[in-house]
Amino acid sequence: MIFVTTGTFGFAGLIEAVDTMVATGLIDDRVVAQIGHSPYVPSRMEYFRTSTDVQKYMREAQYVISHGGTGSMLELLQMGKRIIGVPNRELADNHQETFLQKLHRDGTILYADRPDAALLHEQIARLGTFRPAAFSFFPPAFVEALKRDLGQAGGPGEEGL
User: What is the dihedral of CA 11, 83, 45, 58, to 10 degrees?
Assistant: First the structure.
């Protein structure tokens, strides 16, 4: 199953692109979408606007196509999901684009700079062999420095972190 998440605000362009891909056969997997307040309502895939248990769909998904909301992305990364991140430019600024580009450079997600069916199809084809880099809230150098400092201060040392 492919799960598409747009956040509460919705992301009509992304939902429409994925719905078109299902309609034209570019996606033949089951697709479930969380569409938020999107004015576009899909006709070719399962959807809901909001849920108290979005994590259920995240856990069940083989792949996820997600807007660049920080909360959604961090939760998906912690689950170890293979993700295509698509920035929602319908919002006021480009914070999603900056965040997703950084995650892509770090090797933790695949990235589509716009909700375009052909571009998304390319990225979906890559998901099968994509192995995301390990994700950490803290850069490795920070973790190593913290371990060293805690060890010198008589803290838990390596085995405690």
Answer: -100
The rounded Cα 13 to chain-centroid distance in angstroms is 16
pTM of the model: 0.84
In angstroms, the CA 66 to CA 57 distance is 12
Sequence spans of domains, the chain: 2-130, 135-161
* Phi, psi (degrees; rounded to nearest 5) at 113: -75, -5
CB atoms inside a 10 Å sphere around CB 135:
17
pLDDT in tens, 25-44: 999 999 999 999 999 999 99
Structure tokens belonging to residue 25: 């056969």
Residue 134 CA to residue 46 CA, distance in Å, equals: 31
- The CATH number of domain 2-130 is 3.40.50.2000: yes
